[in-house]
Fold each of these.
Amino acid sequence: MTTLEAIRGRISANKFDPTQELSLQEIRELVDLAAQAPSSFNQQNWRFIAVTKKEDKEKLTALAYGQQKVADAAVTFIVLGDLRGHERLAQALEPSVKAGLIGAKDVEGWSGMAAKMYSDERMARDEAVRSGSLAAMTLMLAAQDKGLASGPMIGFDPEGVRKAFGIAERYLPVLLLPVGRAAPGNWPRKPRLQADQVLAFGSGAGL
Ligand SMILES: Cc1cc2nc3c(=O)[nH]c(=O)nc-3n(C[C@H](O)[C@H](O)[C@H](O)COP(=O)(O)O)c2cc1C
C-alpha cells in the first residue's frame, strides 16, 4: 500500500471484530511507527497506554459513554501528551547526541528555549495536544498499511480515564484510539470539502 492509498483508504471505524487479538510485538510495532512522528524540538512528548484486557476495556468503554468499539477493537490506545515534556528534552535528545547529529551545546540551548516557551501553560497544553495528535495520525496510517482499522475518539471522560488508569497529572489524555480488524457495517469513505473551500493562497482573506 502506498502512502496515498493509506490516506485515501482510511476511515474512522465504528465496528471492529471482537474476536481478533494483536500480539505484544504487533502493538509495540504500531507504537514504534507512531513515534516516528515529528514533535517540537524532537521532544517526543507522546505516551501510549495499550488497553487489551477485557476488564480494562469494559472500564474504558464505560468512560467513553458506552462506545462499543473501545471494547471490540483488539487494542484501544489511550494517547497521552506530556504537559512537561520539555523537562525531559535532554533525555529525548540523547540518541541524537550519540549519533553525532547535535552537540551538548545544542541540547543546552534548546532546553533553555523550550523551558521559556512552555512556562506558558497554554503553550504546554497546545504542544501536548499537537504531539499526541500527530503521533495518533501516524499510528492510524501505519495501522491502515497493515490492514487494520482505527477510530480516533474524543468522546470520553478524560479525568475519569486519568483516575481509572492511574495516569499522572503531567499527562493529558488527548485521544482514545481503537485499532483492530474492521467488522462489516462501517461507514464507507466520507466525502470531504474541496481544496478550494479550505485553502487560501497568500492571505486569509478568502477563508
Ligand atoms: C479528534 C477526533 C475525535 C473524534 N471522536 C469521535 C468519537 O468520540 N466517536 C466517534 O464515533 N467518532 C469520533 N471521531 C471520528 C469522526 O467522526 C470521523 O473522523 C469523521 O466523521 C470523518 O470520518 P472518516 O475519518 O471516516 O473520514 C473523531 C475524530 C477525531 C479526529
Note: Residues 34 and 66 are 27 Å apart (CA to CA).
Amino acid sequence: MPLRPLFLLAALLLAPALNAQVLSFSFDDGFDPRVQPEAAEWNARILRALEAEGIKAALFPAGRFVDSIEGLALVRAWGEAGHTIGNHTDSHTDIDTLTLDAFLADVERGDRLFRAMPRFKPRLRFPYLREGATADQRDGVRAWLARNGYAPAPISIMTGDGYYSQRLVEGLRAQPGRDTEPFRRAYVKHIVERAAHAERLARDTLGRSPAHVMLLHTNRANAMYLPDVIAALRAQGWKFVDADTAFADPLYRMTSKGLPAGSNIVVELARDAGRTPPRPPEDDYGKATLDALGY
Ligand SMILES: [Zn+2]
C-alpha cells in the first residue's frame, strides 16, 4: 500500500494549516431605518469595513427590524456585496414563548421575506439562539429544517457586542461629542478575549480548532469599530473565512442532546460531555468595564 505512507505524510504536512485559527463573522438582526435614523450610514460603514479587508460575512436579518422598503434595501446591499443572507425569522420571537406551529409559521414568513435576496442561503439563526426548551419543540424544528432543505446556523464565539453597543449609544446620547477612545479600546479587547476563550474551549472540547462562527449584530459599535476589531483579531493570528466555508465545518452538523436547546454549540457539546465550561471573560457582557469607564 504505497499510498498510505504518502497520505500520512501529506496529512502531517497539512496539519499546521488545518490548525490555524479561522473565523467567520455573522451579523444578526439588520438595521431598522424606521427607528434608527443612521441605519443606512451604519450599514454602509460595516459593509465598507468588510470590503476593505476582503472579508465575506453572513447576515441574519429578522423581519421585525427590516420589513420596510428602506430596511429590505439595506439587507439586499449585503447580498449584492457578496455576503450570504440567512433567515432570523420574521418577528424575532423566542421559540420558548411560542407553540411549535407558531414558531414554524414565523420561520416560514422570514423565508418568504428573504428567499429572493441575492446570495440567500437557507440557514436559520434562532432568535436569542434558543432552539426549544422541550424535546418536542427542538425535534419539531429540526424535522422542519431537514424537510425544507434548511440548516441551522450555530455559533462558536459569543460576544457582548449588543450590550456594548447599547451602552455606547446611551453614553453618546447623555454626552454627545465625548471621547470614545476608552470605549473603543475596551470593545476591541472584549471581542479579542472572547475569541481567544472560544478557541481554548473548542480545543479542550473537540480536540481541534474548528472554523469558528462569531455572533455579532448590526449595531453602532460595529459600524464605528469593525476595522479595529478586524485588525486586532488579525494581530492575534486569526484568519477570516466566508460563511459557507465556516458552516461546512462538521462542528455545525453536530447537535446537542441538552435541554433547553441552543446557545454556543461548543458550550453545549462540552456540557453533553459532562463538563462545566469555564465562564467567558466579561461574563456580564462588559457591564463592570463600562460602568468603570462611565458609559
Ligand atoms: Zn437577533
Note: The beta strands are 22-29, 58-61, 84-87, 120-124, 151-152, 211-217, 239-240.
Amino acid sequence: MTTTLARSGRRPAALRSTVGRKQLMAVTGVLWFGFVFLHMVGMLKFFTGPESFDHYSHWLRTLFSPLFPHGWFLWLQRGGLTVALLLHIWAATSLTRQSRRARPVRYARTTNVQATYASRTMRWGGVIILLFIVYHLLDLSMGPANPGYVRGEVFRNTVASLERWPVAIAYLLAVGAVCLHLYHGVWSALQTMGANSPKRDAMIRRVSKTVGLLVFVGFASVPVAILLGYRG
Ligand code: HEM
C-alpha cells in the first residue's frame, strides 16, 4: 500500500487519474496511427518498382537534411515511436490492473458484452502487434530474420521475405490484428476526446471501420501481390 502510494506520488497528477491515462493512451495511439497510415501510403510505392521504392526508402533517411544530418530524423522518429509505444503499453496495463482491482470478482453475467469483447480483443491484439513489430524490425528493418536481406535494397528485402508464403500469411494476420486494434482504438480515442453522443456514435463507428479497412487493404496488397508473382 505504502509502496503503491509512494510510486503514484512520483507520477504527475494527470497520470494518476483514469481520464489522464486514457488521454495518454489516445495521444500515443494517434501518434502510432499517424505513422502506420503514412507507412501504409509509403508501402504503396512498392508498386512503382524496385528503383523507385529503394529511392523512396533512401529519401526517408535524408528527410529534413541538411537541417538534420543524414538519418537523424529517422532516429528521432524511432525514438518518438518507442517512447509512445512504451507509454501506450504502460497506460493500458495500468488501466487494466486498476479495473481488475476495482472488480476482483468477475460478474456472473456481463452486461456490456460488446465492450468486454472489444477490450479483450484490444489486449490480446496488442500483444500480437508487439510481437509482430519485433519480428518485422528483425525482418525488414535490420535483417537477421530475413535470409535474403541486403542493406539498402528495400524492394528486394520485401520480396525475399514475403515470397515465403507462411511469412506472407503471418503478415496478413498481423496486419488484420493491427487494423482491428486501429478500429477499436480510433473509436475509443474519439470517445475519450469527448466526441461521442448517441447521435454521433454510428458515424464514429463507420469512420473507424473505414479507416481500419483502408489500412488493411493498403498493407495487404503488398504480400498478396508478391504471392501472385509481382516482382516490379
Ligand atoms: C504488409 C505490411 C507491411 C509491410 C510490407 C511493411 C514493410 C516495411 C519495410 C519494407 C520496412 C523497411 C523500410 C526501410 O528500411 O526503409 C518497414 C519498416 C517498418 N515498419 Fe513496416 N510494413 C508493414 C506493416 C507494418 C505495420 C502494420 C507496422 C506497425 C504496426 C509497421 C511498422 C514498421 C516500423 C516501426 C518500421 C521501422 C521503420 C524504421 O526503420 O525506423 N509495418 N516496413
Note: The first helix runs from residue 2 to 9.
